[in-house]
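step: validate -> pass
step: tokenize input -> pass
step: predict -> running
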Amino acid sequence: MDYLDRLSEFVEAVSLDRLSGEAVQAARLVLLDTIGAMVAGSAQPENRRLAAAMHERGSRAGATLVGHGGRVDPLLATFANATAGVALEVDEGSRLGGGHPAIHVVPAALAVAEDTGADGRRLLESIVAGYEVCSRLGSATTAKPNVHSHGTWGTIGTAVAVARLAGLDAASVRSVINLAASMSPANTWTTALEGVTIRVGRGADAKMVIAVLRALKAGM
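step: predict -> pass
step: emit ->
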């Protein structure tokens, strides 16, 4: 059994019944905190324009644009909500993981959970699975000096959360992780250090939602 098997079996086994009360409460707080970051960021002019652009796409009403009202395709909602969530740099972070797992995991999990009618219990389980995988990969890897972690292991966490919502078995979760790893970009610190107004990683997370959903429909 290799590390991918262990990660995949962990994801399949995540259940609120097996988690401590402290862990469940932490997951709830992470969810609420991230929603708050998305709501706050949604008021920024550029994010209002982004939400309007998502509305104009005329897609099916699957998931809510947080802070704006109205519903769009889960892919578009993930992109807009995650972008809003990092706009003010108030999204939570994990010192052990070396990044911000929640903003990768929560927007996608919220959008897909709403679109599929998943209940709050399943949503929390998907967040725990995605967050834990993000943190483990983040703490176990060292990126090259100019590589920004956003959009790298976070993309895998996004995919894991969607896979957990779908109730995939460990073998299928392993396939999802491999798919996500092949689509993770090596973003640089340039955007953060030179005043660029685009936050890295958001597009990769959104693309993973649609890629995993399509793979599920095709039977992996």
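step: describe -> The chain has a mean pLDDT of 86.
step: cleanup -> pass
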